[in-house]
Amino acid sequence: MKRVKMIVAYDGTNYCGWQIQNNGLTIEEVLNKTLTELLKEKITVTGASRTDSGVHAEGNVAVFDTENRMPADKICFALNQRLPDDIRILQSEEVAPDYHPRKQNCVKTYEYKIMNRKIEIPTLRLYTHFCYYPLDVDKMREAGAYLVGEHDFKSFCTARGQAEETVRTIYSLDIEKTGDLITIRIKGSGFLYNMVRIIAGTLMKVGMGVYPPSHVEEIIDARDRNAAGPKAAAKGLTLVSLDYEKELEKEIRGENKEWSYTLSQEEIVSQKKAWLTIHRCRKEDFDRLLIRVVHQAVRNGAEKVYVKDEEGPGRILLGKSYGFYIFRQEDGEEEWMVTEK
User: Based on the structure, what is the number of domains in the chain?
Assistant: First the structure.
């Protein structure tokens, strides 16, 4: 048995998204069926990003297990001969048996394209959102700057996804205009359900003059989907790439006006330990931050996470359940609370 990783590109126009559904054909369904026929065994793929109906991809990632002896790097060529013209495997390779595309640290890059002119160009209609109202790109850039960093993006998530943790990190958000084509390019640690499309819809409202750029900060603070702009059309969105972390970051810092913390991961590889210092955090966000960052350290390999709250003792309660974690005091570490995996 071997595990094969694939880089998958597709035109999402004729598909009801990535994940198998009852209401129409999906990318996952086509891959499962075609791989099963090719390798003569039941194949089920696991995708990294479950793109929505009509969304495109240049670099989605998927894995599957097989007992077939065909070399992993040759599977892409054999599979592409059987796939429809709007789906292609750009690369295939063997990976470790426990590799999972959704359980790895990575940077996801999306692009949202807007055709901003009086009359739509038919040849671009399937891959861009058409907007006839003139957009002020400079104001859109100013608004986009408020989104960069670690924030609670609950305002930019549709109701279907709001049960999960809504804090995400956006590393960069760039907006370029070439002729009549505006491209919003956004890189992040991960994205909530419909998050990029809601960001695009909100930035277009800024470009139209409906919101001033500074209003985006108010939308973030509201933590309410009704505060943000509309969800932009799916056809303008493309998942460009998923770039996986090759080496664990020694330090992660998260900072905004609600919280500031440092997670030291230097000892994870050698001693299975991580050290979290919470410099400040408002009361309403404290437990969520504690659970979220401790879980990140554990997922990265820590078996013990030491935590210090610099705003004072008493907020971390010994014996209390914080998600999967319970804290205790360890001898010789008076300032630090420790939780074990």
Answer: 3
Which of 11, 52, 180, 309 is catalytic? The answer is 52
Neighbour count for residue 210 (Cβ, 10 Å)? 12
Banded pLDDT at 164 (limits 50, 70, 90) = confident
Domain shared by 128 and 207, yes or no? yes
How much of the chain, in percent, has pLDDT values that exceed 90? Answer: 89
Statement to judge: residues 142 and 237 lie in one domain? yes
**Which residues form the domain of 118?**
106-242
Distance from C-alpha of 299 to C-alpha of 294, rounded to nearest angstrom: 9
Whole-number Cα distances in Å, 171 to 46, 147, 185, 206 = 26, 9, 11, 21
Residue 314 reports pLDDT greater than 90: no
Known active-site residue 52: yes
pLDDT digits (tens, 9 = 90+) for 106-132: 999 999 999 999 999 999 999 999 999
Ligand-binding site membership of 112 (annotated) = no
